[in-house]
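Example: YhzD-like protein.
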Amino acid sequence: MRTYKLTAFEPTGELITEDTFTAETDEAAKEKGQVMLEEKNLLTKTHRLASPAGKLLLFHS
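Written out as structure tokens, the predicted fold is:
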């Protein structure tokens, strides 16, 4: 399992959420991150999901 980091921000730069979770693959992490954003109604906020290697899997500004 690999650890991924999901963060979301207000337009002012204020941190809304910072979550870490594990997934088997980047694709599984991307799907899980998308669900987490939907559940928290953060899809329209600035957000990013980073892999352990620093690769951006999801990004919205």
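The first strand starts at residue 2 and ends at 9.
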